[in-house]
UniProtKB/TrEMBL annotation, chains A, B, C:
Family annotation (Pfam families): Gly_transporter
Source species of the chain: Advenella alkanexedens
Top-level taxonomic group: Bacteria
Keyword vocabulary terms for this entry: Cell membrane, Membrane, Transmembrane, Transmembrane helix
Transmembrane segment boundaries: 6-22, 29-50, 62-80, 87-108, 114-135, 147-165, 171-190
Membrane topology annotation: Multi-pass membrane protein
InterPro entries from the UniProt entry: Gly_transporter (IPR005115)
Predominant subcellular localization, coarse grouping: membrane
Family membership noted in the UniProt record: Belongs to the UPF0126 family.
Name of the protein: Trimeric intracellular cation channel family protein
Compartments in which it is found: Cell membrane
Length: 205, 205, 205
């Protein structure tokens, strides 16, 4: 079940990467490259941070092919994508949650402490988008936009609490996804956001 | 002793990260995230380069908490920070030196060659600031500004020479810190800088 | 033989890094740093992705010295470099091909699957240039320019096919270099390029 959601997730993330590459007029190679890194970069950074070798996508070439094809496919269908706007946002939110839960599980298996497990979940969830924005030379959206990274944080905490309280894994997944999706959609719908820190003057750093 | 300086150092670096995030109008999450990466990113890159797993902060959740809290705290006190300008610069310089010495020691323990030990010291000293600037979409300061990275380089060399000559560790630390602080403060005071390379024309690369 | 080409390659890449740093008015330290990362960053990212520790340049301090000296040397000769434009492009292309072949071989030795071997070749070939452009705050050239990354991709595929068909290593190298050089030079000469993806509207991602 989580596997199917994961494949939908990397497809959605790859498409978001391809669109960002398109805004920078990249060529086909650049589009495929950014799609790949957006979709699989978060998990890669997590594995490299945790020393979890071999890095997961190196053992599943299929994931590489899916993300590259999704990226190239986006070049063709981009002009129709505004019609699918809402569906895409839901898939993207599902990806965020799936990545977060998977990231937590990898760190749990390696017996890292709770804080690190949460960091691993967030890293998996948001770092692909951060790398996408770095490659496209813009300030990472996820550090500025409406509740996005925070959804990842709260889902990670909820998932670990339910797990700690002995809730069965299936129910835990269901509750975590329900909560995360509802929160993310509500955040988009009513434009919820965290306080923004604006710092203007000063000469240093 | 080095531990206390280290904690002061990551606090100062986290605050410099938070201020940079504030210049990009990031939200609370972004501020905490950039603070964390600025403070602990240098050591992380060093550990990943040297294959020094587990990465050090994953074994010390307290460091994670300190940097995140320091980042959020900065949002509150930012308006008063210009008054603390000079103190902050000294703390930042102490951080640079502490990071450099710690980075050298990690590579020494893993028995890397001298050149690599120096690179490890510099990486620990300056890479947090480089990642901060990448996340905030600006050309890294430390590669342009007055003597900063060079202080890290010279401190690393001095520290290794004294160590090679059999100077006791405490005296070595004292001399290295004294030299580094004096050099950095003098560089700020009299605007010392390295020759700048300006290349304008040409079409390639 | 491949070793000599490799040394020419890291020198050429270091010089391209130094020139990019010069466009951002970096100081001597920044120039040396960007030169080092441009030349050795691709191999570093590959080693970190594949878990191939120790990272190769940490075992060959000479490579570090070469790239730093090449970077500093570029500050002196930059004004004359436009006369060497064509030679430089050929050296840069040889570097791209040498890096690609070396990257493939590292992944082959670690017994990764074919897709990952190709990714390792491309990563070694182009990631130094990507890191250079990130440090210089611009959208990576290799994801936008005329056939460059694609040359790396095609060379990797050709090299693996010939290897698979039992062609001797020397002839394989000769053919791969011949093909890659010819393709790259033709691409520059006649401005061949891949289709570009331009995406303008939309609010998401």
């Amino acid at each position: 079940m989580l596997l199917y959601i994961y494949i939908v997730a990397i497809t959605a993330e790859a498409m978001s990467g391809a669109l960002a590459a398109g805004r920078r007029n990249m060529d086909m190679f650049g589009v495929a490259f950014v799609a790949f890194i957006t979709a699989l970069g978060g998990g890669t950074v997590r594995d490299m941070l945790l020393g979890n070798y071999p890095v997961s996508w190196t053992q599943h070439p299929m994931y590489i092919h899916i993300t590259i094809l999704a990226g190239l496919f986006t070049m063709v269908v981009a002009r129709y994508m505004h019609r699918l706007h809402s569906i895409f946002l839901v898939l993207d939110a599902m990806g965020l949650i799936a990545f977060t839960v998977i990231g937590c599980n990898v760190a749990l298996k390696l017996e890292y402490s709770t804080t690190v497990v949460i960091m691993a979940g967030i890293t998996t969830g948001i770092f692909g988008g951060i790398l996408r924005d770095l490659l496209c030379n813009r300030t990472p959206m996820v550090l500025r936009k409406e509740l996005y990274a925070s959804v990842s944080l709260l889902v990670a905490i909820l998932y670990l609490c339910l797990r700690h309280w002995g809730v069965s894994h299936d129910i835990n997944l269901l509750v975590s996804f329900g909560f995360g999706l509802a929160l993310r959609i509500a955040a988009i719908r009513w434009r919820w956001s965290l306080p923004v820190f604006t710092y203007a003057p000063g000469r240093w750093s």
